[in-house]
Automatic annotation (TrEMBL):
Entries under InterPro entries matching the protein: Cro/C1-type_HTH, Lambda_DNA-bd_dom_sf
Domain of life: Bacteria
GO molecular function per UniProt: DNA binding
SUPFAM superfamilies linked: lambda repressor-like DNA-binding domains
CDD domains documented for this protein: HTH_XRE (cd00093)
Designated name of the protein: Helix-turn-helix domain-containing protein
Occurrences of domain HTH cro/C1-type (ranges): 12-66
C-alpha cells in the first residue's frame, strides 16, 4: 500500500537536505517541534495543511511545488505497483517489499522500473 504521508515526508526531507539545512533549523523557522518534524519526514505523522504551510514557508517552498512533486512520485509508485501486481501471483503480492521508484519507462512489450540501485524488467503477458 502506498502511504501519502510517507511520500510527503520523503519530499520534505529531500527539499530540506537540498538546502543543506538541519531538522533543527527548519523546525525552529516553522515553529514546529523537532521531534514532530522528524516524524513527519519519516512518514509517521500525518501533517495538517497548516503545518505543511508552515514547513513550506520555512523551506521557502510553494505548497503547490511540494504537492506536485508528491503527486509525481505517487503516480510512479502506482504504476510500479500496478506493473508488479500484474505479473506476480496473487498469494505472493503481500510479500513484496516496497521499492522507491526513480523512473518508469514504458515500451509496447514491457515496462522498466528503475530503483536507486537496480532495474527490474516486467514483461507484459
Amino acid at each position: 500500500m502506498i502511504l501519502l504521508r510517507r511520500l510527503l515526508g520523503d519530499v520534505l526531507r529531500r527539499q530540506r537536505q537540498r538546502q543543506g539545512r538541519t531538522l533543527r533549523e527548519v523546525s525552529s523557522s516553522a515553529r514546529v517541534s523537532l521531534g514532530y518534524l522528524s516524524e513527519v519526514e519519516r512518514g509517521q505523522k500525518e501533517a495538517s495543511s497548516e503545518l505543511l504551510a508552515s514547513i513550506c514557508d520555512a523551506l521557502d517552498l510553494r505548497m503547490s511545488e511540494l504537492l506536485r512533486e508528491v503527486s509525481d512520485e505517487l503516480a510512479l509508485a502506482e504504476l510500479a505497483q500496478s506493473a508488479a501486481s500484474d505479473t506476480v501471483p496473487a498469494p505472493m503480492r503481500p510479500m513484496l517489499n516496497p521499492v522507491r521508484v526513480t523512473s518508469v519507462t514504458s515500451r509496447p512489450d514491457s515496462v522498466t522500473i528503475k530503483a536507486p540501485a537496480e532495474a527490474v524488467d516486467v514483461v507484459a503477458a
